[in-house]
Amino acid sequence: MLAYVLRRVLAAIPVMGVVALFVFLLLRLTPGDPAAIIAGDTATPAQLEAIRTSLGLDKPIPVQFLTWISQLAHGDLGTSLISKTPVTTLIGQRLGPTLNLALVTMVLSILIAVPMGVLAAWKHGTLIDNLVMALCVLGFSVPVFVIGYVLIQVFAINLRWFPVQGFSTIANGIGPFAQRATLPAFTLASIYVALIARMTRASLLDVLGEDYIRTARAKGVAERIVLFRHALRNSAVPILTVIGTGFALLISGVVVTESVFNIPGLGRLIVDAVLARDYPVIQGLILLTSGIYVFINLMVDLSYSLLDPRIRY
Amino acid sequence: MNWFKTEVSGPRRKALKTLTMASVLALGLSSLAPAAHAAGTTIRAVMHSGLRVLDPIITTAHITRNHGYMIYDTLLSMDANYKPQPQMAEYKVSDDGLTYTLTLRDGLLWHDGTPVTAEDCVASLKRWAQRDTGGQMLMDYAESLTAADAKTIVLKLKKPFGPTLEMLAKPSSVVPFMMPKRIAETPASESITDQIGSGPFKFVKAEFQPGVKVVYEKFDKYVPRKEPPSWTAGGKVAYVDRVEWVNMPDAQTALNAINNGEIDYMEAPPVDLLPLAEANPDIKKFRWTPLNTQTMGQMNVLYPPFDNVKIRRAAMLALGQNDVLAALIGNPEYFAACPSMYGCGVPLSTDAGAPKTFATGDIKAAQALLKEAGYDGTPVVILQPTDVITVAPQPVVAAQALRNAGFKVTLQPMDWQTLVTRRASQAPLAEGGWSLFFTNWIGAEVWTPLVNPMLNTRGKKGGFFGWLDDPEIIKMREEFAAAKTLDEQKAVATKIQQRAYDDAAYVPLGSYYIPALYRTSLSGLIQGPAPLFWNIKKAN
């Protein structure tokens, strides 16, 4: 298995290299000038040029690329052109809130969605099944920001159970953390509950038609055991895949939720950096996100063998 | 979930452990963020944008100027009557108007505890003058700028420069803020990295998150002036222990937060959301500056159709300020048509040269003039930013007005950043050029012919985008600089505006303001050229 992990990690390096080159070129081809953002509206062309020179943006693109790659080789993601803060510091400040939010959302989603999906599959074709599926369609179709605002209006403004915005780290105590993470996590979970519940239902329905389930039932095994021990476990691989890729999507896709709840996470950092054409920050973030995708895919692949003994590495 | 737990065997348990470890690691990262601060009076404010660039000399960004007023101080300051007043220094002007002597007052300290010296201030002024248009002009007139002793700064001029004191007290971007010499010696093209000022608040570096949060603490050793505060002049007394600027990119979130008492101050609520706060008796509106913001359109005179002055005038006639303002702001309580290129309600305001129909536009006159000019159907390419709400509506309204007048119009949607790059292009339309774009200026950026960037008509040699080349206006600006009294200045400014309207140098499209919101637990808010946080008290 160690050889497999090593192979996967090594295979990821050229992938990330291509991503890095692609992102670098794409950014340089996009119009927009970080120097203009720094200098503001009234800067003269000479002043802009001076700022561009001090940022190293006047150098030929291949030189800029080589500089960046050699920085990367030393584990240095560079410095933000706009705020002059090291990219690693910026990411360090923002990674915590996003990861926390993503983890809480995922746990919440799994706790809600898996039983929902099991219930729907068990009661296949009944009113309960239809109800669960209708909820899933709703979760998919209502935009995240609408759900966010509704939750804020009801639970923060009317009932005053939660603050309307902000983030608190676990270091400040579980209470404040949970208070501030609840509404955004439920908002984000609305999509993932729908996604995971549907996948659980579909996957479970496939398995419930298998011979061994019929055999188990014929042997008089309790329905609870049939569902959770025999069926769910065997349908877990696709569910886990959805959860894994969903987690990666969560990390890179919480932009709207972070804005609505004013959470200083990676999503907002990405938007800020793109709007300001802050090249080192965008490059660093895309590399990080690609790395997270690779890592999570690897984790998902490895966990297959836990669930399906036929899978060996 | 025991179905899962009971069946986990050796190697699988290891894998599970790895997954658990990863989660723990992820949660642990959250502890990297700084811990919440202990009690004390704290004002939490949402400003119009997040602070990213910390150097108030390198950038004209307003959020950085606001940051500058928190931690830096100025030699002279402008009061509510637009008059320069002593702040860090008292001043004396020689009878011939050529020597300005500034003497630092006692007790001035930098935030690192060292005393403020004249040398620090000379270095600060020199760096500021490299970046600021007004400062550059002042230095063109200067023979020397030196520190005579630890407390005395001497500025000697070659010939009289009327607005010298106004320039030293310049209230908006770029403000001549004072910094220690070692910081002020940073090249003017590089951002400073050390935030040491001598103002009423200190910058808390450990809690700064660019674009997210910036924290200021009261500077205990600041010695305020004795006079009552008036704009940026007078005593700057910090009554609260901390000020936190929390950036909220979503205006609705900020409004919810002020309604709920999670923040105390919101600098720029969108006008259409104001009714949501007006219903709350704990929230009041505050006009933090008497200066309006001017919205305007700039034509590119290098290529057809706007290389023809008659066609420019036709476009100017077609554009009615009220239509633009209604689309931009909506509520007439907050906007007004204004013919003055210097803004309305300021000392130099004048309607000289403006079309009589500036408020409504005159499509018929525009059509007639366009015909007379022999317009050949060359399209007007309008740059249309879609991502900034304060500049998104103007192009759409203008396009319709120009079409009504007979122009062929192409709207090119893009984000503001692309626009900022694109407008610098001096290429013809077919090669990525442009004909017309829109932007906004706050009052203090247009209120005199010296600071108004659009009246810097140096053409391709350093003029504002659009590149009108009119040496006559440049000559009149010199005349303005030499004027000694306000009446003389007014007379020249009026002539300049007349000429600029004849040129159709740019099209002012009216003025507006957006009130700030604050919770009634705050008191003592003062007006100024920027949102100011001294003199504010907060009730617990």
UniProtKB/TrEMBL annotation, chain A:
It is a multi-pass membrane protein. Pfam families: BPD_transp_1, BPD_transp_1_N. It comes from the Bacteria. SUPFAM superfamilies: MetI-like. Keywords: Cell membrane, Membrane, Transmembrane, Transmembrane helix, Transport. One of its GO terms (biological process) is transmembrane transport. It is found in: Cell membrane. GO terms for cellular component: plasma membrane. The chain crosses the membrane at residues 9-27, 101-122, 134-157, 177-197, 237-261, 281-307. Residues 95-304 form the ABC transmembrane type-1 domain. Belongs to the binding-protein-dependent transport system permease family. This is ABC transporter permease protein.
